From TrEMBL:
<dbReference type="GO" id="GO:0004519">
    <property type="term" value="F:endonuclease activity"/>
</dbReference>
<comment type="similarity">
    <text>Belongs to the UPF0213 family.</text>
</comment>
<dbReference type="InterPro" id="IPR000305">
    <property type="entry name" value="GIY-YIG_endonuc"/>
</dbReference>
<dbReference type="InterPro" id="IPR035901">
    <property type="entry name" value="GIY-YIG_endonuc_sf"/>
</dbReference>
<protein>
    <submittedName>
        <fullName>Endonuclease</fullName>
    </submittedName>
</protein>
<feature type="domain" description="GIY-YIG">
    <location>
        <begin position="1"/>
        <end position="78"/>
    </location>
</feature>
<keyword id="KW-0540">Nuclease</keyword>
<keyword id="KW-0378">Hydrolase</keyword>
<keyword id="KW-0255">Endonuclease</keyword>
<dbReference type="Pfam" id="PF01541">
    <property type="entry name" value="GIY-YIG"/>
</dbReference>
<dbReference type="InterPro" id="IPR050190">
    <property type="entry name" value="UPF0213_domain"/>
</dbReference>
């Protein structure tokens, strides 16, 4: 199973990082309904600005934790180097 690590830019310009097995479905969940993360529910709409694929959950989770520990400026550098449009 493929896991996707992703970063969303929220309407208030904050960043949200997560992992999923179905990226398209997860973005829809973040932008509608009750299935989106509590953090993003009050910051809609969200836009996908970064994604990366992993072969297993463990590797995706490790990278998610690493990215979450970065300062905002470093997250923005990562996003700008690997832009999703």
């Amino acid at each position: 199973m493929i896991y996707h690590l992703y970063i969303l830019k929220c309407a208030d310009k904050t960043l949200y990082t997560g992992i999923t097995t179905d990226l398209k479905r997860r973005i829809i969940e973040h932008n509608s309904g009750k299935l989106g993360a509590r953090y993003t529910r009050s910051r809609r709409p969200v836009k996908l600005v970064y994604s990366r694929r992993f072969r297993n959950r463990s590797a995706a989770s490790r990278e998610e934790a690493r990215i979450k520990s970065l300062k905002r400026v470093h997250k923005l550098e990562l996003i700008n180097k690997n832009r999703v449009d």
